[in-house]
Amino acid sequence: MARQLFGTDGIRGVAGEYPLDPRTVHAMGAALAEWAVTRHGADPVILIGMDTRESGSWLAAGLAGGAAPSGVEFRFAGLITTPGVAHLAKMGDFAAGVMISASHNPYQDNGVKVFDHSGFKLPDSEELALERRIFTLLGSGLQPHPASLDIDSGLGQTYLNFLGSTLPCRLDRVRLVVDCANGAATYLAPELFRSLGAEVIPIGCNPDGRNINLDCGALHTDQLRQRVLDSGAVAGIAFDGDADRAILVSPSGRIIDGDAMMLILAGKLHSESKLGDRDGLPTVVATIMSNYGLEAALKDKGIRLLRTSVGDKYVLEEMLRTGAVLGGEQSGHMILSQYATTGDGMLTALRVLEVMRESGQSLDSLAAGLKVFPQLLVNVRVKNKRPLEELSAVQDEIRLAMAEFNGAGRVVVRFSGTEPLARVMVEGPVLERVEHFAHRIARSIEAELSA
Q: Is residue 4 in a domain?
């Protein structure tokens, strides 16, 4: 049975509308409480955190209100990152952790993401069981009764203490521009880097409930890039709304994306003989969206690249299957299994800064080995999502592109798991031809699915 509420990254929607309306959120809280009692026995405690969206507080209160009749206690971290919730769920005395966030989406959207005590997202079977119970509760005529929640500020500090403990060096006299996307890392990230001795120039740190991800953060790096160039910083760091990803900017203004960071971190781990999978093969896991330049650069170092479908969930699954310790996405989601069970933007930034300090090299120098193939991603808004193999005109355009590239390029067409979008990625040796085919394929999709 297919899931109806949970997508690739929890439950998402427009806050206030189904499935994030008060009644459904109340039912989520009740179902989650019952799940916690069944899995963990009497008196379980559930952690809950949120980003800066104006809807976060009432969604948290609604979830806690739904759990109240079961006697399940919620501890409220308030503003915290998604990886912070995952870490605390694993290391603390919690049956589960719940993060209220829609990551990089605009403020009108929100979401509910659940981690169990292992720190991993719930498997599909558990999410399906929760869904069934939610629908049963909704049919029982329940009425929402929000709970009152007090913020436990010590939870965020516990998470920062962990992050700081992973860095074996100081960042004294290191100037950083830190863009927190007016999101979950707004107060945590500047505090972390300052506690390690860095000089921090903060931007995107004035949340008002509606400006999360607005012209700032990991998806909008123009302002960060300019501040790095103007200030002479050694690096710029941009997070998205829930800070599970990071994008860096070098002193020259180069964007250091997930591909470049994987190459940098893989080089360090490989030199320390720490990159092997279960068979001892040096391995990095990435998605089909990572540039061919990463694959070529890793191959030159004797490192193989395994590719998965788009989504950090699938990267993690492949890492667990193979025993690989490093994986990530071009978008900046990085999973370092030595430290975390999910992508963590602040942890990623610390690891790259560690390589810089230990090697004495700049970000520009460290990323120089990545020769990026021209790549273009075109998003097409669609009214419905039909199987791509049924779209004959689209398939014809893809075949034309692949025939011209003749093995020296890639075409990836997929639907977004969280938005009504088809994503067209074309990669090849010549930018003009990449742009030509990307727009041809996008127009073909638009003709078939946007009418």
A: no
- Return the SS3 of 364: helix
167 and 250 in a single domain? The answer is yes
Residue 40 lies in a domain: yes
Closest CA to 447 of 380, 398, 390: 380
Residue 2, domain member (yes or no): no
Dihedral, 24, 106, 446, 20 alpha carbons, nearest 10: 0
Q: What is the CATH number of the domain that holds 440?
A: 3.30.310.50
In a shared domain, residues 303 and 204: no
Determine whether 101 is an active site residue: no
Q: In this structure, what token pair is assigned to residue 450?
A: 């946007």
pTM of the model: 0.89
**Beta-sheet strand order (sheet of 73-79):** 11-14, 109-116, 96-100, 45-50, 73-79
Total domain count for the chain? 4
Pick from 209, 311, 242, 312: nearest CA to 97: 242
Residue 298 CB partners (closer than 8 Å, separation 6+): 262, 263, 266, 284, 304, 305
Q: To which residue do tokens 């009432």 refer? A: 58
Which residue numbers in the chain have pLDDT < 70?
Answer: 1-2, 451
278 part of a folded domain: yes
Which residue out of 101, 103, 290, 331 is catalytically annotated? 103
Position 51 scores a pLDDT of: 98
Q: pLDDT tens, 58-110?
A: 999 999 999 988 889 999 999 999 999 999 999 999 999 999 999 999 999 99
